[in-house]
């Protein structure tokens, strides 16, 4: 039973049932899928360990549910539409049959190269159909994929490969992104200098640029595919076997490899895809995210395909060849459901309205947003100019860790309010907590957002570091999953996410850990200490502000700034570049040596009227100096 929400009352009833009897509810949803063996128990959990197991004893393969089971009715239906970066290049459409054949064939390529169940495969590729095929091929044989967004630097890539001891890397010669090409293979080459676990890499030809192929290690994708058969039995997986690892930034230390498992993830992404978007047979669905992020995993690949949808992948960027590109693509493919990030909306809103008006957007039925809070102005612009006031907007709040939508309107059914993610999805039990760990019951409250009951697609651990998983998510509030977000619950019980309350900054929808950026800047030989905070930015939502102390007064501040920016771009990736770097003589610290980020955040936000209590600072005078030099 995948869909029974028809109107607002049935949403309320469904929600209530899901809370009153979660096992019965999710057991019934799971019946709609293909299992090799049914589960013995729907749920076992203990948030103190934490341990969460859904559908234990159940056996399945997610690709059977995304592909094989659709073939009798929809072999010839388009599964994936691929729109290239260059609008003049040919579109690729793969039917369910074609996608099935290609996935099986590439699964055999993996097997031929020694990959078996449980091996980790790193995928560092542009947004081409082969990327989707690669994920599914891994899942077909039970290999664990770890996709790294193709904008990360070689050292970020190496860290992720090493953290998961990947055996194989899938990449391409290069990638197109707007007017630029990215030399992906060269970045992989650099990363692999330092990755002893990697035995081979398989390289797709995309840009045709020259690359160095290392004998005995690097293989061409097309050569391998030519040798492989298109028949491949699906590996039978336990519901709780690992499906993939995906890294996300944390408030401290290195990125966390979030582990998702097969059964619960499949059920929840499919259920939420169908219900939140109210997806109807035959509709064209377009999520503009990159598969390098969780949004692409759950809502370009797994959820839509398991639901038998037509899912579009886009290789390019919203501004190329011009600011009308998204709308041109909507018209070209008669897109019905369009799902993007607030940062893209804010950028496009600034362009001349003629970029929107020259295209026919009448095919659109539902709009969605994800990744960060959407401001009121952007919400209305999206509603008025893209939805023409007739398309419900679903503001979907969720995380890499949650695997699927947590709080979101049901399209056309939940009455929306601008900037509100509205109400929880069935099965999700949010709790608003105060700083003392008490739940703020009822409506009209504001605090930290926790979830107090498991849901099927939650991450099960951090790869190789369960203790960090427990500490990060299950120690701040007893017996609850802590999201790291703040929220407001209004008089109607509607949730509005107010942003991170930890040291994660969301820049253009991408999570960045302040500690990670600080560590990189501190590596510069002239830098003594750094404190990084976020500050509001017109288009990006938030941007990075770095306060830097140096051993000596810099000879040329501008040069040093550029060097720091280059260092961050090279070590983490261009998305982490500081927007502002202020050189300061000292940082505000407490007597115990802790940096008072609250004060630095306020200065960066240009809100210095009320800095709160600064009397506990070691040297209160430093604050005045920083305010005077603020950028
Ligand atoms: O702060 C929240 C914000 O993005 C964080 C999760 O980032 P990530 O793991 O990269 O996943 C992004 C895609 C699901 C959250 O902790 N966030 C995500 N969606 C929203 C949001 N903030 C407000 N409103 C949203 N709709």
Automatic annotation (TrEMBL):
Q: Under the GO molecular function aspect, what terms does this record hold?
A: acetate-CoA ligase activity
Q: Which residues form the Acetyl-coenzyme A synthetase N-terminal domain?
A: 11-66
Q: Which gene encodes it?
A: acs
Enzyme class (EC, first level): ligase
Q: Which UniProt keywords apply?
A: Acetylation, ATP-binding, Ligase, Nucleotide-binding
Which NCBIfam families does the entry link to? Ac_CoA_lig_AcsA, PRK00174.1
Record protein name field: Acetate--CoA ligase
Family under the similarity heading: Belongs to the ATP-dependent AMP-binding enzyme family.
PANTHER family assigned? ACETYL-COENZYME A SYNTHETASE (PTHR24095), ACETYL-COENZYME A SYNTHETASE 1 (PTHR24095:SF14)
Residues of the AMP-binding enzyme C-terminal domain: 516-594
Looking up InterPro entries in the UniProt record yields: Ac_CoA_lig, ACAS_N, AMP-bd_C, AMP-bd_C_sf, AMP-binding_CS, AMP-dep_synth/lig_dom, ANL_N_sf
